[in-house]
Every structure is written in C-alpha cells, then in structure tokens.
Amino acid sequence: MQHTAETIEDFIIEELKKRFHEKVENFVISNSTDIPYTMTSIVFKMYNYFHVRFNYDRGSFGCSIVNGEYGISIDSSETWFDQADFDKFFSDLQKQIELRIPNKFLEHHGW
C-alpha cells in the first residue's frame, strides 16, 4: 500500500494522542513531501520533558530524542512502516523515554 506523507502524519499523530493522551503535545510537521519520494518529520513533546522526532523516509521510520543538531536514537525492532507492529513500536518508545526521565518527575505528574 502506498502511503502519502499526510496519511502517515495523520496516523502517527492520532496514535500518539490515543496512546499517550496528555503525555504528548506540540506537534510540528516538517520536511513533508511525496515528490520525488515520501518523507516526513514530526517533532512533538513527550511527558513535558523531551522533544522527540519521528522520521519517515521511503518506508523506513523511527524516533529520536532531539538533542541539538543531532538526535539520540530510540531503539525499536520496528523499522519498516508497512510491516510494523505499532503496539510494539509505541511500547518501545514509551519504555525508552521513561527510562531517561527521573522517577521523581514521573511520580510528581502521576505517570
């Protein structure tokens, strides 16, 4: 199935909102195009602590924590959009983000 940048953006944003509720906000889309190939980037804030970048480029995808010019990659076994188990992907994202946030901060916010 051929995905457009817009359908990918809509899917990822809606899934993030559905799964993380108030723990995710401030979505900004950039580098969105379908020509000459489909790619997009979505930056969002998680847990009021980290800015995370979701990148999609010609079928592969992943997330990283924004850290200046470069990012800190979030590991997941799910890397190809058409074959991804998104329950696994979002679970990996949650675990990797929460591991990097102090427990006192999470507890203070009831997370």
Strand order of the largest sheet: 1-2-3-4-5
- Please describe the biggest sheet, giving its number of strands, its sense, and whether it closes into a barrel: 5 strands, antiparallel
Number of strands: 5
Q: Nearest-angstrom radius of gyration? A: 14 Å
Fraction of residues in β-strands: 35-45%
The rough form would be described as globular
Uncertain residue segments:
none
How are helices and strands ordered from N to C?
Answer: HEEEEEHH
What portion of residues is helical? Answer: 25-40%
Which structural class matches the secondary elements?
A: alpha+beta
How many helices? Answer: 3
**Residue-averaged pLDDT:** 94
N-to-C terminal Cα separation, in Å?
37 Å
Number of domains: 1
Descriptive account of the structure:
This protein is α+β, with helices and mostly antiparallel strands. It has one domain (5-108). Helices cover 32% and strands 35% of the residues. It is built from 3 helices and 5 strands; from the N terminus they run αβββββαα. It has helices spanning 5-20, 86-99, 103-108, and strands spanning 24-33, 39-46, 50-57, 60-67, 70-74. Strand 2 (39-46) and strand 3 (50-57) form a beta hairpin.
Key attributes of the depicted protein:
111 residues; alpha+beta; 5-stranded antiparallel beta sheet; 5 strands; 35% strand; globular
